[in-house]
Amino acid sequence: MAKTLDANQTTNCSLVNSLDAIKALADANRLELTLLIADQGELCVCELVTAVQQPQAKISRNLALLRRAEILVDRRQGKWVHYQLNHTAPAWLMQMLDTLKAAEACHLNELVQRLEQMGDRPQRLSNCCPST
After folding, report:
1. Cα–Cα distance, 91 to 75 (Å, whole number)
2. Where is the HTH arsR-type domain (predicted)?
3. pLDDT tens by residue, 49-87
4. Fold of the domain built from segment(s) 17-128
5. Where do the domains of the chain lie?
């Protein structure tokens, strides 16, 4: 018996993934986190807390959603979690993020200045993410 699709179903999995990514980035806080991570390459939660000046719990919830949408990937080092862009994400997503980084350069510079007040990255990591 042939399976039929109703009007609300889709056969295109990439459409579903595209919608998930767009929905995830439609929130200003999640977009800000994503653009900062895209700009810096990799950041840990403590660096993000300092840069965006939001509570750690809120940042962690947003990062989890971005991870589920396959925009970010994480790397665990002891009890610390570091985030970076998912480099297997579709090219259109990476191009969109590059365009948005350019459009938000002034705001990103403010966030980077907050990071730099923590010191350079090795110093920041030793202060906020000490290895145990």
Report:
1. 22
2. 10-104
3. 999 999 999 999 999 999 999 999 999 988 889 999 999
4. Arc Repressor Mutant, subunit A (1.10.10)
5. 17-128
